[in-house]
Amino acid sequence: MELSRPFIRLPFAFDAGRLAAEAAALPKAAWMPHPSGMRGNSAVALISRDGGDNDAFDGHMAITPHLRRCAYAQQAMASFGEVLGRSRLMRLESGCEVAAHVDFNYHWHTRVRIHVPVVTDPAVIFHCGGAQVHMAAGECWLFNSWRRHRVVNSAAITRIHLVIDAAGSSRFWRLVREMEALDPVADAPAIAERSQFVRFDPNWQGEIATERYNTAPVMAPGELDALAAALISDFEAHPGNNPLLVECYKRLLTDFCKDWREAWHLHGYTAAGQARYQALIDALRRELDPNPRALVTASNEIGVNPIINQRLLAPALAPNQAANLLDR
After folding, report:
1. Helices 243-267 and 274-287 sit at what angle, rounded to 10 degrees?
2. ∠ CA(242), CA(244), CA(247), 5° rounding?
3. 248 Cβ contact partners less than 8 Å away, ≥ 6 residues apart
4. Which residues, 6+ apart, have CB-to-CB distance to 113 below 8 Å?
5. Which residues is 63 bridged to in the sheet?
6. In this predicted model, what pLDDT tens digit does every residue of 227-268 receive, in sequence order?
7. Residue 47: burial class (beta carbons within 10 Å; 0-12, 13-18, 19+)
8. How far apart are CA 135 and CA 132, in angstroms?
9. Are 118 and 103 a contacting pair, CB within 8 Å?
10. Which DSSP letter does residue 168 get?
């Protein structure tokens, strides 16, 4: 999800000490290593596919046993009043970092990541799109994951953040647009004064709404058209891209969308169309230039091939959703 600023601070405040105590009480085995093996990075699944210890982005999201042990974390997450996706406690050890990267897969096209610092230090710095901030304990932040970003922990402590993924209702995004008008650093006193403090309620009986339907077994043609059109517009705008290759990729993506729509009109969500859909995906992958950065986006200099693979082709036919295909 692209934002107008690298960082936005939302007007919420949380009891970081209570969150930290709940995190400290979790068993050591609850902390999963980073899926890419990034040194010093680990996480506890709080909302995950089927409530298990996994890093999946899609599927039926459910509260994990770890989150059930954290009464205040549940209240903090429920306080947004949103349907929540994959969410975790994320730990970054002293002297380690989250390497610079851009979030460009299908999940991030429609979701934003909410950060609530739990255990931190002024020497923990978040970098995004040329800007940098320290997110203080108990505050609430968003950042633009479509810009290149990284986190550096130069402190002597292990940093822990509560990290919540959400697509957000219109109500949520109206608040975000309001806060975009404020500089999160220069206007910090005004934001703090406006912030709603979420207190612990020992009698809380609320619920957290979690994503149940986030990936279709087969992507609808209209969604595929929109994703392809946005990507085409982005790489067409880059002045350094080879014009001939731009036209080639534009044709490949346009043809793929038309053939997908044809297959959809014939097969829809039925299992009978699975082979045809897969054949179209495989054919487009074979046509892509061997160099993953043969074309790059104008918005953030990311190679177009990985975006095609992770934002369009991977979710176009979701393997873990195959059981939901209709047998007719």
Report:
1. 180
2. 110
3. none
4. 142, 143, 145, 163, 164, 165
5. 47
6. 999 999 999 999 999 999 999 999 999 999 999 999 999 999
7. buried
8. 10
9. no
10. -
pLDDT for position 319: 67
Other Cβ atoms within 10 Å of 205 Cβ, number: 5
Question: What's the full length of the chain, in residues?
Answer: 328
User: Is residue 74 a contact partner of residue 153, using CB atoms and an 8 Å limit?
Assistant: no
DSSP 187-240: THHHHHHHPEEE---TT------B-S--S-SB--HHHHHHHHHHHHHHHHT-TT
The 3-state DSSP class for residue 248 equals helix
Overall pTM > 0.90: yes
Are 7 and 114 in contact by the 8 Å Cβ rule? The answer is no
Is residue 126 within 8 Å of 8, Cβ to Cβ? no
Up-side HSE of residue 28: CA atoms within 13 Å toward CB? 0
Backbone angles phi, psi at 219, to 5 degrees: -70, 135
Task: Give 49-81 pLDDT, tens digit per residue.
Answer: 999 999 999 999 999 999 999 999 999 999 999
**pLDDT value for 117:** 98
Kindly state the tokens that stand for 289.
């230039």
Residue-wise pLDDT tens digits, 195-218: 999 999 999 999 999 999 998 999
Answer whether residue 139 shows pLDDT above 70: yes
